[in-house]
Design a protein that fits this description.
Structural class of chain B: mainly alpha
Radius of gyration of chain B: 19 Å
Distance between the termini of chain B: 41 Å
Number of domains of chain B: 1
Largest sheet of chain B: none
Helix content of chain B: over 70%
Order of helices and strands of chain B: HHHHHHHHHH
CATH class of the largest domain in chain A: Alpha Beta
Number of strands of chain A: 14
Order of helices and strands of chain A: EEEHEEHEHHHEHEHEEHEHEEHEHH
Radius of gyration of chain A: 22 Å
Shape of chain A: globular
Strand content of chain A: 25-35%
CATH topology of the largest domain in chain A: Rossmann fold
Helix content of chain A: 25-40%
Number of helices of chain A: 12
Largest interface: A-B, 34 and 30 residues
Number of domains of chain A: 2
Strand content of chain B: under 5%
Distance between the termini of chain A: 29 Å
Oligomer: heterodimer
Strand order of the largest sheet of chain A: 6-7-8-3-9-10
Largest sheet of chain A: 6 strands, mixed
Chain lengths: ~325, ~270
């Protein structure tokens, strides 16, 4: 396992189960990881993989069933009062605030939960707002802000207390490209300039690829791989093969692909407008790609076109799990 | 100042500010909150007046005033806390170093500031329209008012702590309690009277407001030597109640936060 010089977050064999009336659900199944100071660490996985549960444990909202998690050297289960002044947490789905108070008023209120002096809080609010592009909307009532500006306010809230470690759960979900880009730039700046550790849980692979120093790919509560995005992509070897097949085949007809030697996994999506199926196959080598094409054609399916695609984290996930994010979410 | 005390005060002040500003940001809310308690007070006062019990009109006015505070300190604190939970603010509170007790005090203080105009309106209108006979002992009355609010605050904090673990169940429990408690606490009529069975009086005495209301009536309107002695006893009981309830509520907040973290209910929202 990669060991950062100065560790901000340390998780050791973390388990978390939830008991419902009918069954026991395992959300985390023996997670271990270390995140270094000033690192942007991505936790990538489909919905239900255990990302939010991990964030909630690390941010002291939830107790682990077993195992240990430490933030800045303090045990989150036993010493929450020592962890809380050093962290903050924000979720993209929340955008919480008081509607009849201005964005500035809301941010000031949240800063007071950390005992920050009012003039210092105002200075930070102004500075962070300039960095993220909220300064012209700071004095608008919270209900009057657009989704993008509310989310910018939520992100500022997570940084207004000058935290050492920030936990972000899908911070750019549902945002337009430009707003998401602005938030990503802001996060990179906060990690680089201020040495903050950012743990980013997301299922947005492009986001992880763009800003994370390292990433843990998580599925069904387990870490499948953990490295830099580049190293993970390089580990696949050959670029993926993409085929456009018409008419879209039944799911069973594609199962033959996994029997071809050297195929690490595949994922498919249907383009209903063009009535085609786009199948993305993660292959070990160029020879495997050729074999996949031959096998597909021999099975009677019509391959309209095919090409090789630059490896992304999606292919890494497919190679690790055998299926894509969407298929995984439908399975669970 | 001690860091912990500083954080507590800043949190309470900020939460009170948010509550007050949010309330006054809604014009309809101001009209409803300031205006509506007047109707109940007028109704009860007219009832006493038409029954010839003019000496008791003051009871109705006092009831109208106290109802605003009582509603805010006890019920609104719990329902606001639940609103915060459903709005996703709970997670922010819990993951911050801010003490929950300070947040709840802030909510109450904000609520009191928000409903103070209503109480003033009830007092002024009641006074000018009905001229109730009063015979106040102000220092005792103020002490009674403060101690009553302190015990109500502690009771409200205990009710609020339920939301750390429960959602709709706590809300239903809270709602189910409101009307019976309002009746039993005798906001508009004296509970300690011969027409009320002793058993009912005993049960009603568990509610701090019942004792508080009785003590306030005695200090503001009756103020006989016998009443003064009884008021001191009531103040002592209220003080003990406040102390016990503050300890219970503080322990219950801690225990239920721990349970909420264990069962995972803190971040669960149920609409």
């Amino acid at each position: 396992m990669h060991r950062p010089n100065r560790v901000s977050v340390e998780v050791q064999d973390l388990h978390r189960e939830f008991e419902t009336k009918h069954k026991k659900v395992t959300a985390l199944d023996g997670i271990s990881l270390q995140v270094g100071e000033g690192e942007i660490f991505g936790v990538l996985g489909p919905n239900g993989a255990g990302k939010t549960t991990m964030i909630r444990i690390l941010s002291t909202l939830l107790l682990p069933s077993s195992g240990q998690a430490k933030v800045m050297g303090y045990d989150v289960a036993k010493e929450p009062e020592k962890v809380r002044p050093l962290i903050s947490m924000a979720s993209g789905a929340e955008r919480a605030g008081y509607d009849y108070i201005t964005a500035r008023g809301n941010l000031w209120f949240f800063s007071q939960l950390y005992g920050i002096k009012s003039d210092e809080a105002q200075r930070r609010i102004n500075e962070l707002s300039k960095q993220i592009g909220l300064e012209d909307n700071l004095d608008k009532k919270f209900y009057a802000l657009s989704t993008g500006f509310r989310q910018r306010a939520t992100i500022i809230r997570a940084f207004v207390n000058d935290p050492k470690v920030v936990f972000l759960d899908e911070p750019t979900i549902g945002l337009d490209v430009m707003t998401a880009l602005r938030i990503r730039e802001f996060l990179v700046n906060q990690a680089k300039e201020h040495g903050r550790t950012i743990l980013l849980a997301t299922h947005n692979m492009a986001e992880v690829d763009a800003i994370c120093n390292r990433v843990a790919i998580i599925d069904k509560g387990k870490i499948l791989a953990c490295d830099t995005p580049l190293a993970l992509k390089k580990s696949l070897g050959a670029p993926a093969l993409v085929m456009e097949i018409s008419p879209p085949p039944a799911a069973d007809n594609l199962a033959l692909l996994s029997k071809v030697e050297g195929v690490k996994g595949y994922t498919s999506s249907i383009d209903e407008e063009r009535s085609i199926s786009r199948v993305q196959v993660v292959v070990e080598s160029d020879d495997t790609a050729q074999m996949v094409l031959d096998t597909t054609r021999k099975s009677g399916l019509t391959v309209l076109s095919s090409w090789r695609q630059q490896t992304s984290l999606e292919e890494v996930f497919v190679a690790l799990v055998g299926r894509g994010f969407r298929e995984r979410e439908h399975e669970s | 100042m001690n860091l912990r005390a500083n954080l507590w005060l800043k949190t309470a002040y900020a939460r009170a500010w948010v509550r007050t500003m949010s309330m006054y940001g809604e014009p309809l809310w101001v009209i409803v909150t300031v205006g509506f308690p007047l109707f109940s007070m007028m109704g009860m006062s007219l009832l006493y007046s038409s029954a010839g019990a003019t000496a008791r009109i003051g009871f109705a006015i006092l009831g109208g005033i106290m109802l605003s505070f009582w509603g805010n300190v006890l019920w609104s604190m719990a329902s606001q806390f639940n609103w915060d939970k459903q709005a996703g603010l709970f997670e922010i509170y819990i993951t911050s170093p801010a003490p929950i007790s300070a947040i709840l005090v802030g909510m109450s203080l904000g609520g009191i500031l928000g409903t103070a105009p209503s109480a003033v309106m009830v007092a002024v209108v009641g006074w000018f329209v009905f001229h109730p006979p009063i015979n106040p002992a102000w220092p005792t009355a103020i002490a009674t008012f403060v101690i009553t609010l302190a015990s109500l605050y502690a009771l409200g904090m205990t009710l609020s702590s339920l939301y750390l673990v429960y959602g709709r169940e706590a809300e239903s429990f809270n709602e189910a309690l409101q009307e019976p408690v309002q009746l039993l606490s005798g906001v508009y009529f004296p509970v300690y009277s011969p027409v009320i069975p002793l058993a009912v009086q005993a049960v009603a005495s568990v509610i701090p407001l019942t004792i508080g209301m009785d003590a306030l009536r005695r200090t503001l309107f009756l103020n006989n030597p016998a009443d003064v002695n009884l008021v001191y006893t009531e103040l002592l009981v209220l003080g003990i109640m406040a102390a016990i309830l503050l300890v219970v509520s503080s322990k219950s907040l801690k225990a239920l936060e721990e349970r909420g973290r264990r069962v995972g209910s803190i971040a669960v929202r149920m609409r």
